[in-house]
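A quick aside before the break. I want you to see a complete sequence-to-structure record at least once, exactly as it would be stored in a machine-readable document. Don't worry about memorizing anything.
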Amino acid sequence: MTKRVVTSIDVARLAGVSQSAVSRAFSSTASIAPATKERVFRAAETLNYRPNRIPSIMLTGRSGMIGIIVGGLRNPLYGSALEQLSSGIRDAGFQVLLVQVIDTVTLDAAIDQLAGYRVDALVTALAIGSEKTAAALSALAIPVIAFNSPLTGPGVSSVRSNNRESGRRVARMMAEKQVRHPFWLGGPARNAASQARKAGFLEGCAESGMEVTMLDGDDSYQRGFDAITTALANGHRPDGLFCSNDLMGCGALDALRDRTGFSCPEDIMVIGYDNIPQSAWHGYQLSSFDQRPDALVAAALDILTRSLASPEERLSETCVIDATLVLRRSTEKPV
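That is the input. The structure line, written in tokens, reads:
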């Protein structure tokens, strides 16, 4: 025998209130006396009742859900930021809808997929790769906040690390330590954050008269290991290495140590980006830029809250957070 679904009428009858009072009790904006709301919640718990959101969505056009868009999660930084972001969204009274798309770098290929979700806003760890995509996101008519994206538009905002300045800072640091043959190990060409770090690094190296050897990567540990192994086999002898992220930096350190016996920082200084937990492991001690995920998430939540409070304004903001350089053994001799 099929068990009958508990309805708001059942809750109203047990609580001794009207059906409309049950609806108001489960609304984040409706007015209801605290004592009445408490009676409704006790009755709902007794009956194991869960409100049906569909009528409210159809009536208001608001679902109370924020979509979080992710691609690949192999970088531990994303997991930490996702946890903080999800917690902040729930604390603000919204539910989280996690949407995973195939692309690990940009949103461009996922616009049709995203348009099918009934969410009040989108927050994405993927960058906006083209003006066409920015316009398509704007046309969704909901707030969109993208991390580390250079592009914005009406209703579309960006929160990002100060990638370009971080690259320049690495170049200045290498110049101060008398580096003469620096390497750059970059991420995918479509990775806007990686490209900004590269641009700042090349600018800084040019100012100091350092000619940079360019290596292509894909943000993975294995690619960091393979790229350095191949470069060394081809006769390159760098004395400085800036990696677009920590995963490649850890791979590069293993290649330097296992294949050549290079010592850091005596023979070569290595710097990564993201400050993932692995970078602090004893076997790596990789100097790295901390993107300060707490600050990035706080900025995104601030823009999100203001956007939802005044949807007619179609906020389009860019918030840049300075990264903090954490120095470890890969650049600093132990004291």
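Two observations worth writing down. Confidence is low (pLDDT under 50) at residues 54-61. The CA atoms of residues 66 and 120 lie 6 Å apart. We'll return to this after the break.
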